[in-house]
Amino acid sequence: MPDNTRRARDEAFWLTFADRYAIEPGPVNLENGYFGRMSRTVVEEYQRNIELINRSNSVHARQRFDRDESLEIRAQVAGLVGVCADAVALTRNASDGLQSLIRNYNRLKPGDQVLICDLEYDTVKSAMRWLARYRGVEVIEIEHGHPASFDSLLATYRDAFVRYPRLKLMALTHVTHRTGLVMPVKAIAAAAREHAVDVILDGAHALGQIEFDFEDLGVSFAGYNLHKWIGAPLTLGFIYINPERLADIDPDMGEMHFPTTDIRARTPHSTPNIPALLTLPLVLEEHRTMGGSAAKGARLNYLRNRWVRAVRELSGVEVMTPDDPRLYCGITSVRFTRHADQQAMAERLLKDYNLFTIARSGAASGPCIRITPGLTTTAADIDLLIRALNELR
Questions:
Q1: Could you point out which of 8, 197, 204, 302 has its C-alpha 20 to 30 Å from the C-alpha of 161?
Q2: Cβ–Cβ < 8 Å for 288, 295
Q3: Domains by residue range for the chain, with CATH
Q4: Where are the beta strands (DSSP E) in 206-327?
Q5: Strand 237-241 vs strand 221-225: parallel, antiparallel, or unpaired?
Q6: Three-state SS for 169?
């Protein structure tokens, strides 16, 4: 296999790869961060599994899925991130999993402090604020300066750990959904450990486009999606809990379908999307066959760099994500500095250039437009974006 950097620039290969996906005619989709497409073969497998479970109903579910298939699928998901199966529980998505981890974290007492930042996902913020209402803790919210650097991000957290000595728990987002900034997780987690602060990691946008392992990251709790860059059907995600820290997360609302020593007790027990889960082995096989996160990440980074390098120095546009390779991935945001309403400019991109993007607000650095190429995005699509940004600025 050619090295990933060289392959990332091979338009002929990626056009062939794109043929594996059915794409609806219409705007060029540069908002691929919402969820990823399933390949044609995955859609076909998913449809077969829908029909299978519809025919066999609870006979298959109880005799085969509950006893054997679900355990094998769980083990394959654990293998995806290089951990033991006992460290993983399947969820519907990262948000569900992160909420479970936050609400069931049991090492808080009234008067303790928990930490969030301006770039956290709103669901994570609301879950941490729920702790304030029902556990009597104080929520500390910090803001990251712009432009960000590796050192400035780490310094902001180090300062918070010193200024707020009652901190016990923090949320941390690996790839921020607002700007695409990649947080230096390993360094921040190490600093948090020095001050006895636990980290709950939101990895929703990281899995599938950034290579990592949990031992290196140094986090004990995390939630992930399988429907973004892995290519699984919607309704699939998982949580990770370091087995040595399982007792620090209570069973979810007294969940007793599994023993308290089983991580699966940390999520709500319900009927899962069995056809989607049965499709997951094929999804993971396709992910591995194409080179996994290394290959996908290299392609997405190439597309990102193609447009960022073309507009970075132009007046009238500001790229919100730094060029330090430790701090970016395929997702990057831009702002039209001469226009106050970024939503209006996103609409202009769609109306005038047939480019579908998404406006994002909530970051201390201000509103922006998130640009997220996908695995079916072409260099020609990116060149159209470059022209649009240049003309609209």
A1: 204
A2: no
A3: 4-30+292-392 (3.90.1150.10), 48-286 (3.40.640.10)
A4: 221-225, 237-241, 317-319
A5: antiparallel
A6: strand
